[in-house]
């Protein structure tokens, strides 16, 4: 089995590894030369394949064009059209490409496609003078492509002397070869993709390095016992360190679980709808919400406060043993609720409602119902000042009657109405609509 990477690096850096380093260098150089030679051979094989393909295609195209050239020459000698040959003046764009060409030379030009007709190539003889009529004939591109017929792994292109492609077949490769069918007028470009290097050749350096490393490592194991003992000692220390890490991780997990439990308890207490405090199973104060803190003198509450010191500031009598209300200076009335884990909740009991409070809430409800349409209309018209006034008035009512969920929503609506371009006003109104019905129900009314 080959050694691990760390052991191999350690072997390479050993003080007696000069000979081993020479072996490794020789192996790498020999592997590089072998791979480079193989790659060059594969490219040469691909080049030979491309050259053979271009030669075969050039001969086929040349044989096909000889009769066409003979007909063009005959029409030029007779000065009149022949079978399949027309006498016409070349288009200006074709004439512009004939600079320096000798009269009577055979040239080719791809005709533009149009009307759904199959593509064609124009074969013509260079006229003696620009603008003079010259014989020409059309050759279908499909005929030229059928002559190319590239073998598997190669691609062939038939191009003019100016590099304009007339026909193509096959998938292009990395190695190219060209052969002229007509010098300066028509040539065949062939390309081929070299075969891939064998995977076994690419793995030779890795197998060689692994074998040399394994041999050298066995040599070190026989000659350097002290280092092996130190390695075993390092492993033992690492295991002890790992065990310490596991123990530390367990302690942190236990601590995290305890903190998570405390956070859950704190979240429960903060979400409680009335003032409440939580006593742990040992009878010590562990959590409370802000509304409970407001019932007691400042700086009275602290974590781990014994229940005896806490109940000195509370009234835990049954509801039937007092007058139902807390007068000036009286202690807050609470009731104790036992939990499954042995902890207790001290929940504040609401005071008896004052005389006339129901009538005041009904009046607040009617005022809310009167102001809400005005607020919606101001938002719809984009009147920020009016929306801010209506929201401010409703926020005062909500604060006075304990509608704690509606107060921050109206505050956000006021802020949005005062913001530049009233950004976020629509979303603030939507949040208000979501809390408005609940506020009306809290006042003792049906949904608006």
From TrEMBL:
Disordered: annotated segments: 314-335
Residue positions where Phosphohistidine is found in the record: 392
Pfam families per the UniProt record, alphabetical: Hpt (PF01627)
The species this protein was found in: Sediminicoccus rosea
InterPro entries noted in UniProt: HPT_dom_sf, PAS-like_dom_sf, Sig_transdc_His_kin_Hpt_dom
Residue ranges of the TM segments: 12-35, 197-216
Domain of life, per lineage: Bacteria
Keyword vocabulary terms for this entry: Membrane, Phosphoprotein, Transmembrane, Transmembrane helix, Two-component regulatory system
Name of this chain's protein: Hpt domain-containing protein
